[in-house]
Structures are given as C-alpha cells and as structure tokens.
Amino acid sequence: MDEQKDSHDLVRLKVHGVHPDSNTDTQIVILRDEANAEILPIWVGSAEGNAIKYALEGHVPPRPMSHDLIRSCADHLNIKMTSAVITDVKQNTYYAAIHLTSHGVERTIDSRPSDAIALALRTNSPIYVSQEVLRQRGGGNLDAWLERLEAKNLGKHEV
Amino acid sequence: MIAQMKVRGLMFDPYNNAYIVILRDEEHSETMLPIWVGKSEASAISFALEGVAAPRPMTHDLMKSVLDIVDARVLSVVVTDLKDNTYYAKIHLMGEDSEYSIDSRPSDAIALALRANAPIFAQEEVLRKQASEELDQWLENLKPEDFGKLDS
Questions:
Q1: CATH number at residue A135
Q2: Which of A107, A112, A115 is facing B69, going by the closest CB pair?
C-alpha cells in the first residue's frame, strides 16, 4: 500500500475517546475531525484499546508496553514516524498505513488502525483518514449514538 | 552466566486468569522458567509458535516490520532480572553499525524473538531467584494442616 498520499483527500482526525463496548470484549475508539463534523468509530481489541487509552491519558505504565517498545526501537534506529493514515474499510475491517522516514527516505508499513493510532499518540504524529473511508463508514446519526455511549459510560470507566 | 531457553509452551492459569509462558533451559531440561503474561501477549506468542499468519499484521509483526525498514537484526533477547514477581528483559538489536539493547517486558521480547528467529536467553541468576521465589510462595501457601501430615 504505497499509494501517493493526496493531502486534499485526507481529513485529519483526533482521538476523542475510548469506550468499552458492553456487548463484546472490545473497545470503541472514537475519532473526530477538528471541526467535530465527522465521527469515525473503530472497534478494537481490549488490549489495543488500553494501549490507546494509556497514551491518551498520559498514563506511564511501570513497564514499557508493546507500543512503547516499538517507539523505543524506532528511536534507537533513527526511524521517525510521520503519520498514521486510515486508508480503507472492507467488510467492516479497517486498514491503515504507518508512514515513517529513515535517512530522509519515506517508508510505509501496513498496519491495523489500532496499532497505527497507538503509535501515533506516542510519537505525536498526526492521524488522517481518507474521504473515501468516511464516505463508506455509513450514515446514521452518529452524534446521537456517541452521546448515548458517552452518557452510559460516564464515570464508570474512569482510570 | 546465561542459559539458552526454548519456549516449551503456553498454559492457562485459571487462578490468576492469565497465561503462563513456559521457558525451558536447553541444556538442563529440568530447569523451567514460568512467566505470567496477559491474554493478548499470550496470543502474540501463540501465533508465532504455531506459525499462524494472522489475517492482519499483529502488533509484533508491526514491530518486526519497523526493524526491517533499516535491516536491523534481533541478535537475542535476554530475561535479565526478577524483582517482586516482575520479570525484566532486554532485546539486543544490531542496527546499521551499532548494537542496541532495549528494555522490554519478557512477553514482548519473546513474541519478537520468535518472529525474528532470534535466540532467547535467561540470566542464571534469574533461574535461581525464580526457584527460590517459587519455594517462598509454596511455603506461604502451606496451611497448618499440611504440616500435620508429616507426623501421620
């Protein structure tokens, strides 16, 4: 997946929150654009959800977690992450790419969005999504859904 | 001194709702090192043990891809210490022209070593400590009635 990154086609997202999905052993990562006009929920495993939540809350675990280790390997090897891009969605599976530079050369690695986001938060790298993925995300009133989700989890899962 | 270890297998520990990675000393096969790990770490190790390719790259596959960008090699991973029931490990990497040793949890180190075909070692000091901590735990769990059995 080394398609040219067209900045006009990409929307920058921020991680708005991570919520447990009460029906399954998964967590929902809520991504929003800067104008809060778009919502992109992505379901991730509970370990991946925690990896994102820790970084979001600035929680430093006593031992390095997996994504801290990736970051520390990259730091030692002079590899710099430049961005995470959610590139595609097929049959409810999201695809992402991690963009890195090493010696001034750009490299792209195929990744699950959860890893890409967990790593982006640890390296202060921007997170983008393609317009196409937002179009395919499906309609429905996500604002109302998010409000209900946040109300339901309010105070229940504060770390 | 350092001992080369092989991953002997994974077990589920229902009391702690966790998994145990069993490492075995290659030379002295009676020496085992059990390391408790979480569910996702256990599955990362189990995928690699069974040679199963996940449909999407898992976290440690990604870790390996990052190393591959600069042709960095995992020389070895070493379980270096045991303090208060927590194991410590180091990953030894060979970059372009220098070696690095990176602090890691043993679970990440093992999951990466299996993907990079790198040897796994344990400090013999850790094997000794583990044996004595295990003995301590065993002694702590003894109930008065357990002692009584000796007389009968």
A1: 3.10.690.10
A2: A107
Q: In the predicted model, is pLDDT for residue B135 greater than 80?
A: no
Contact check, Cβ <8 Å, A77/B93: yes
Residue B86's closest chain A neighbor by CA?
A: A63
HEC string of B34-73 equals: EEEECHHHHHHHHHHHCCCCCCCCCHHHHHHHHHHHCCCE
pLDDT of residue A150: 82
Out of B57, B69, B70, whose CB is closest to A111? B57
Token code pair at residue A43: 């379901």
Q: Tokens 């069974």 label which residue? A: B50
Mean pLDDT, range B91-114, rounded to an integer: 96
Backbone phi, psi, residue B68, to 5°: -65, -25
Whether B152 is in a domain gets the answer no
Strands (E) in A54-138, as ranges, are 79-90, 93-102, 105-111, 127-130
Of B60, B88, B102, the CB nearest to A72: B102
| pLDDT tens-place string over residues B56-79 | 999 999 999 999 999 999 999 999
B7 with B115: CB under 8 angstroms? no
Residue numbers in A near B93 (CB within 8 A): 73, 76-77
pLDDT for A48: 95
The CATH number of the domain holding residue B10 is: 3.10.690.10
Residue at A2 is within a domain = no
Tens-digit pLDDT profile for residues A34-56: 988 889 999 999 999 999 999 99
What domain range includes position B26? Answer: 2-146
Q: What distance in Å separates the CA atoms of residue A114 and residue A47, rounded to the nearest whole number?
A: 10
Q: How far is A68 from chain B (nearest CA, A)?
A: 9
Q: How many domains does chain B divide into?
A: 1
State whether B102 and A93 contact (CB < 8 Å): no
Average pLDDT rounded to a whole number, residues A91-111? 95
